[in-house]
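Side project, low priority. Logging it here so it doesn't get lost.
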Amino acid sequence: MRNKTATHASPAEKSIHAKSIAGAASYFFRTLLVQGIGLVSVLVLSYYFSPEDFGLYGLVIQVIGILVFFSDIGLAATLVQKEEEPTLEEYRLAFTIQQLLSWAIVLVIIGLYQVPILQDRLGQVGFLILLSLGFSFPLAALKTIPSVMLERRLAFSKLVIPQIVEQVVFHAVLIALAISDFGVLSYAPAILARSISGVLVLASIQWWPIGFSFHFSKLKSLLGFGVKFQLNDFLARIKDQLFYLVLVFFLSPREFGYIQWAKSWSMYPYNLTVQNIMAVTFPAFSRLQNDKKALAKGIESSLFFITLVIFPIIVGMCVFIIPTLRVFTEYSKWLPAASSLIFFTLSIGWSALSSPLTNALNAIGEINKTLQLMIMWTVLVWVVTPLFVWWQGYQGVALAAFVISWSSALSVTMLKRFVPFHFLETFWRQLVAAGCMALVGMVGWGWWSQGVGQLLFGMMLLACTYMVVFWIVGNSKLRQEISLLKE
């Protein structure tokens, strides 16, 4: 198909645009609710749990993160990315494969507990948590096809409902059990309750004629994109989960707990903004892959709104984490993890810029390019991070993540080969406002630690600083972007 050159969007483009905006709004409000609940949950857990508890759960997450790769071979992404509507037989084929892989993972988890070194590190409590996560795989496979169907229709407002229910149930059970002194074991029933509730709610929203099917020729045709997509995911897990799993055996449980706590907190800005936008833009960009002009506009808008929100959050977290831990003395046990949180959070800034770009590359079928980037990042993590750990101890993990994050700039030049979009123009105003915000924060940094009143005043002052500066330098740009959303 040739690229469109008309100045006005076609009815199909308008439909995709409207559904994408509605989906982004649905995901954003869903995330505000879920992240709000998650924030309360982490605050409670940070109070009741020790660094060693966070370290144990972190170890379980790394093990399960590796196994996630084997629960899918990229079929779900392939079904979403396909230009034509998948057949019922293809849906059933993907469902069959995922069920087989999911139950195989349950057996693998049972076998893993027989490994002496894992028995020693996990203990009985850790194994019960791991097993509960294992049984969540077959349950999650029941949600895959209904989720794909909703994504292909860009029906994100419906897709967010089971996600909200899952998180509400998970955190409610987790907090209740933590307060009741169940300790880190609280995760096991909370994980199972989340999985079951999600399946039930999604089944009531999107019915499909469930069934089993297997045809090797159809599987082979679907794997062209799926295998490359999954290989990308595999490298991401080698870069993250496998590396952190190896790291467990070189750091003390307390030190690994500090890293897990810092990394968990640092992901809040990313989950609030980037993850939402990417969930919407991948299917939307896939529908627009033959119209580079419309695609470029979508990429620029995504970058603009992501950075508009995430930059001030990143600055606020970096400025106020140490004053907050000092003011609320109950949480002072986490002060040794504060610098790690700051560097992890700063590295998220580059992720906010590069993730939408790699997402666009995947959406237009250029999975080979993102594969090259992932190979580079994997090698950097395994080479650079050990050097920083040798130099700075456990604090070196976050410092290395920040240094490596600058290599994300390569994703910009890579995408520009296929889509002519403007990069710096989308976020320089937000960067200027965030820089002024950081300057004010550093000037009054010592004062924010003197009490709750000073801390709250500092937060309001920095928020006002960002809004005022951005209004001065970016008022017209904001109006322009909002007007584009209304078209």
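Brief comment: Residues 1-7 have pLDDT under 50 and may be disordered.
Revisit when time allows.
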